[in-house]
Amino acid sequence: MPLNPNLNSLAYFEAVARTGRVTDAAAELGVSTAAVSQQLKQLEEQWGVRLFRRQDRRLSLTLDGEMLFQTTTAAFRMIRGARSAVLRQNDSQQLAMRCSPSFAVRWLTPRLKDFLDLNPEWGVRIDASPDFSDFETETMDLDLRYGSGRWPGLHAECIINDYVVPLCSPAYRDRLSVLADDPVRQLASARLIHSVKALYQWNLWLAVHGVDMPVEQAPLRFDRSSMAIQLARDGAGVVLDSVTLACDEIQNGTLVPLSPAFPAVEFPAYWIVCPSRHLNRRIVRLFRDWLHRNGADFQAAARQCLEGFGCAIRPAADGEPGLL
Fold first, then answer.
1. Where would I find the HTH lysR-type domain in this sequence (predicted)?
2. Which tens digits make up the pLDDT trace of 95-152?
3. What domains sit in the chain, N to C, each tagged with a CATH number?
């Protein structure tokens, strides 16, 4: 067998194995069916094995064929990904990223004009989606992710530490204060709003603070923080969610901490995530530096705002978000 198998034959083989038909593979490759069949025959002769068997007008892989397909499809996917990255690098000056919807709308977009003013020659593309990027197959420079910071095989650096504390409207807080002076008893009488994708959930927070809640009869659960925060602002209950996302409401007074007796818990939550090689792009480095500056300024302002309400701030302890 040749030490360097014919890459053209391997490409034809991968297309046939993936589509299951010589005709479909030929149409995809833009060649004749005879050319595909000839390449497959040469490949089987070179390797000395049978790669396909015919079943009901379709081709199915033999055990040897399946083993070769698993390797070739992964290799060609990586080659296509590398080609897309090279073309993107040379095609236009554009930063492409994916960002969680609530963070994109509530934090990133209001600040983005500053970055664009500093870098007017660059375009920006943002996909506001909860789905993570597949950097091997998609033309994405980076993700802005909410999470624990553990993404194996990827570079991750925190840009913002988040704070969580029970939040509600001033009117809802006043209603609870009439029921009891003790903030624990106030919370036990409250309707909880659950943000189901938040790192810090009510069940953990209640256990850490020793609050026994009655069984919820009509729980409120939302998979978007923006919805949970809006409902709390409208006076429907108490939410435990990202102060980063609710900072505008806290600063303008439409949301307030339920009680200064409950400290705000701090933990790393918002991250730049990408393959390490993407940091070699100048625009990625510029955007990373800009995020760090804005993240630090924002974090200091959020901390000052919480302290203005009398809330102490403590780092997450063992078993809490950020230290799991």
1. 5-62
2. 999 998 899 999 999 999 999 999 998 899 999 988 888 888 888 999 999 988 889 9
3. 7-84 (1.10.10.10), 91-160+271-296 (3.40.190.10), 161-267+298-315 (3.40.190.10)
